[in-house]
Structures are given as structure tokens and as C-alpha cells.
Write the C-alpha cells for this entry.
Amino acid sequence: MNTKRKKLYEGKAKILYEGPEPGTLIQYFKDDATAFNAQKKATLEGKGVINNRISEFVMSRLNGIGVTNHFIKRLNLREQLIREVEIIPLEVVCRNVVAGSLATRLGQAEGTPLPRSIIEFYYKKDELNDPMVTEEHITAFNWATTPEIDDILATTQRVNDYLCGLFNGVGITLVDFKIEFGRVWEGDFSRVILADEISPDSCRLWDSTTGEKLDKDRFRRDMGNVIESYAEVARRLGIMKDMPTVIQGGLH
């Protein structure tokens, strides 16, 4: 990593650096793991490398089916070249199975399949613990317009449909996932595109047969084998063969 580059932003799992050309950024995936709004922290060696590869794999395929996103290309083990976007301050959560906060908030049994996917919005504000908000809140506070919300909902459903099929094909149930969106400007006009990442950090992924968790819940719930589970997702997607041997060596 070139430490002379200009750092623009550092989050819990990624760092954004100034890109080589206007309108681009370099996204660096850290090994840091956090949960419960960063109250729980750890460093998991290799996590950033695996998430970089899984997110590259998923974003590339979404681009291929017309779901425009910020991914341009992977630069190395931990970095991607991405399009610079104006991030919309919302976390968009799509749920297919009851889990996590949906189970605790509504007193529903975890693992209950939903009759249809549910899309929820959360205001992206750590100091407020990312509160859940409605479309009325979003438009009232000018976080996004009604047409932008419509685009976000339609894109999220397309992403869900594609990812459900992708993961189902390798024996994994997509329980839920979190994505973010940003605006790209073309003159006076903007459009909304998918941004951030899609990885086991941002998805709940369960083995379709055993129900074993292959995602960040293993860290949240002190279940162990976090890196092994992330690597298993990569292996099933067919990208493990390119993983660095330093990580493969610790996966027995």
C-alpha cells in the first residue's frame, strides 16, 4: 500500500484514497472486523483480501447484467479502482429470511422464510446507531428524492434476485444483505448507482443444507472460524484457487 497517497475517508472496514484519475477512488479492504457499531473489534488476518475478491466477483457480474455500480477493476489483493460517487446516507437492507435485528425487534423466530422479500431503510449515522427510517423521512430530510427511492428499490430487488440465484447455485441461502448507493453526476443531472461492497461482511449467508453461518454473524456471536467461513464462500464461488497461499495455508 502506498502510504503517500491522499487518504479521503476511513471507515470500519475500508479506506478510500484519491484515485489516479478524476472521478476515481481506490478502495482498500482492511482486516479490521467490527460489530455492534464498533463496540466489538478485532483484526482477522486475510479478511480484507477475501472480501476484496468476493466483492469484485459479485460487482463484476452485476455490471454484466446491467446493474450499474462503482466497481471498475481490482488492482491487487486488497484494492479496487472504483468510481467516485456522492454517497446517499442510507443503508438499504433486503431480507429473505428472518434473522438478526428483524427477529429481535419483532419477536420472530430466526430462520423463518419470509413470504416475500422485505426492503428496509436505515439512516447511515453511527452516533445514532443507524436508526430505521421510512420513505417519508428520506424525502422530508432530502436524503433522496422519490424517483431516487424508486430506483433504489428496483435495483435492490434486481440485486436480490440475482444474488439468490448465484448463491443458491453453490448451496448457500441468501438470508439478507445490506447495500449502499451513490449519485454520479453528468452535467446537471445525476443518477443513482450501487456502491460500497457485497461480501460476507454485508450479507447473511447460510449453508442451504446445514444452516451453518458463513458470514459476519460468526464474529458477532463469537462462533469462531470467521476467516474459514468467508474463504468457504469464496471457494464455492470458484475464486478460491486464486487466493494467496498465505491464507490458504490456514484453512485446514
Notes: The two ends are 29 Å apart (CA to CA).
